[in-house]
Amino acid sequence: MKDFNYYAPTEVVFGENSEEQVATLTSRYGGSKVLVHYGGQSAVRSGLLDKVCGLYEAAGIPFVKLGGVVPNPRLSKVREGIELCKQEKVDFILAVGGGSVIDSAKAIAYGVCYDGDVWDFYLGKDKARQMLPVACVLTIPAAGSEMSEASVITNEDGDVKLGYSNNLARPKFAIMNPRRTFTLPPYQTAAGVTDMMMHTMERYFTHDDDMDLTTDLAEAVLRRMKSAVFEVLKNPEDYRHRAQIMWGGSVAHNGLTGCGVSEDWATHQLEHELSGMFDVTHGAGLAAIWPSWARYVMHENLSRFVRFAVNVMDVPNDFSDPEGTAMRGIEAMERFYHAIGMPVNIHELIGREITDDEIREMTRKCSRNYKTTCGQFRVLSADDMEAIYKMAK
Ligand code: NZQ
Ligand code: ZN
């Protein structure tokens, strides 16, 4: 069992009409001039953006708006936000949206307080020592950025997608109203659930299998997300199950399911090259990679895969054939992905066969020019990464 620090300082305000509290919370956390940051259309169409701005106006809190964040958020938008915040003397950033908007907000918040180029943090050239406070009104449960320390940005110059983690970036507050997720299309709903399940699985597949409570919690999250997603795909306005999923997204990525265990994150790193190169939805990219990763690494700790098959995927345990049981768990996961409209390989993800050159390029990027490994469950060399991409073709 690993020793651990658990740090989850975000104030979660969850439930019907929770966005009504946005102005009070912003003042409480020191915001006196706010950047309201948002994505394409969804927050405008639903009236959420107007509602938030109206609440700031009523409370006498000045704000400026910056929209246009796209999924796999771009560095150019971050730079635009940094300039705007400096000009307007913004001291607080509110993200209205999902992981992409929150991650863009975090990057802007770093950049405003830094004399150098914000991309330095993502390249690992420097560490942020301060940033503007960030908070969010979450509209899509998926990335878990509403409580996480991470931010993932795509530099269009070279299609490089990189993450940077710093505890300073954990949002001050996260407003979550499950009703605001009723408008999510089925594909985004399913990709979101896939992502949050993967955040749990990146921690579940570990060699530290003596932290039983963490494992129990992880299995509960996985089972609950797996069943709730079908309810909301059947009825998008099912508040009860939308709520399970919304809270599940946060629990999956606020560190709780990683206490006492070493974490893997290879599937995520392999996926970031896919969404960096093909601009696909992150959750769908994870589904395209995971089955191949799982088959490639399962012998590192077969009993963990057996446990996953039995406790999460409801596969009968064949004690005489642990490998078969583990394999049936992976196959059951593939059936689950298909049942919710997710791909299980790259061809299904991008709609065509990926070329060998593209695989080599992703391998080069994922291994940072053949200099780094990824993963913990099995430490993957560049050759391993290439082999997994080929299996996932
Ligand atoms: O742009 P709009 O019009 O708002 O549409 C968005 C977007 O197209 C739409 N949407 C959001 N809320 C909606 C809605 N549509 C209808 N009704 C609503 N209520 O959904 C689409 C996807 O939004 P996005 O923010 O991109 O989704 P998600 O939360 O999945 O974020 C994905 C990004 O987060 C990163 C991913 O790599 C990806 O770039 N991640 C961030 C992490 C973190 N910061 O901790 C961890 C994750 O592993 C992940 O890597
Ligand atoms: Zn993710």
Features:
8 strands; binds zinc ion; Rossmann fold; binds 5,6-dihydroxy-NADP; single chain; 49% helix; alpha/beta; two-stranded antiparallel sheet; Dehydroquinate synthase-like, alpha domain
Quick take:
The chain is an alpha/beta fold and 393 residues long.
Question: In terms of topology, how is this protein built?
Answer:
Blueprint: E1 11-14, H1 22-28, E2 34-38, H2 42-45, H3 48-59, E3 63-66, H4 75-88, E4 92-97, H5 99-112, H6 119-122, E5 134-138, E6 150-155, E7 160-165, E8 173-176, H7 186-204, H8 212-234, H9 239-251, H10 266-278, H11 282-297, H12 302-312, H13 322-339, H14 346-350, H15 356-366, H16 382-391
Helix pairs in contact: 4-5, 7-8, 7-9, 7-11, 8-9, 10-11, 10-15, 11-13, 12-13, 15-16
The site of zinc ion has 6 residues, from helix 7.
What does this structure look like?
The chain has helices at residues 22-28, 42-45, 48-59, 75-88, 99-112, 119-122, 186-204, 212-234, 239-251, 266-278, 282-297, 302-312, 322-339, 346-350, 356-366, 382-391, and strands at residues 11-14, 34-38, 63-66, 92-97, 134-138, 150-155, 160-165, 173-176. It has 393 residues and is an alpha/beta fold. The chain has 2 domains: 11-181, Rossmann fold, CATH 3.40.50; 186-392, Dehydroquinate synthase-like - alpha domain (Dehydroquinate synthase-like, alpha domain, Up-down Bundle), CATH 1.20.1090.10. Strands 1-8-5-4-2-3 form a 6-stranded parallel sheet, sandwiched between helices. Strand 6 (150-155) and strand 7 form a beta hairpin. It is globular and about 70 Å long. The structure holds 5,6-dihydroxy-NADP and zinc ion (ZN). 5,6-dihydroxy-NADP binds at residues 39-43, 71-72, 97-101, 103, 139-140, 142-145, 148, 150-152, 180-181, 183-184, 188, 192, 195, 253, 268, 282.
